[in-house]
Design brief:
The chain is 77% helix and 0% strand. The chain has one domain. The chain is mainly α and 137 residues long. The model has no long low-confidence stretch (mean pLDDT 86). Keywords: Membrane, Transmembrane, Transmembrane helix.
Amino acid sequence: MKSQKPNRYHYILGLVVILLFYSCYLIFFADKKNIDFIPRKLRHVITLGFTIAVYLAGITFLKKIGVVWMKTLWNIVYIFGLLIIALIGLYDWVFLTGQPNVKLSMFARAIQELLMSPILYIAIGLLYKSLLKPPKV
C-alpha cells in the first residue's frame, strides 16, 4: 500500500503545468478579438483539446502523488463534467434547431471553464490538506 503523504513537488509541478495550459488557452484563443473568425467547430475542438490536456496533466501528477482518492475524485468530476457538456451539446444539436439556447450554452461553457481552470486541482489539494489536520479538541 502506498503512503498517504503526498509529494509536494509533484503537486506544485502539476499546478504549474495546468496553469500553463490554461494561460495558453486564455491568451491565444479565448481572449482574442478575432475569435469569431475561427469556425465554431474548430473552436470546440481546440477547447476540447485543452480540456483533455488539463485532465491528462492533472491525472499524471495526481498519480505521482500516490493518494488514490484524489485521483478518483479528479476522474469523477471530469467524467460527470464532460458528460453534462456532451448531453447539453446533444440536446442542442438534436432538439434545438436554428438558434442555440444562450443560457444553456453559457452553462456548458462555465462547466468547461471549471474543468480547464486550475480551481479543481487546487480544491482537491486544499481538501487533502484540511483532512490531514488533526481535529481540534
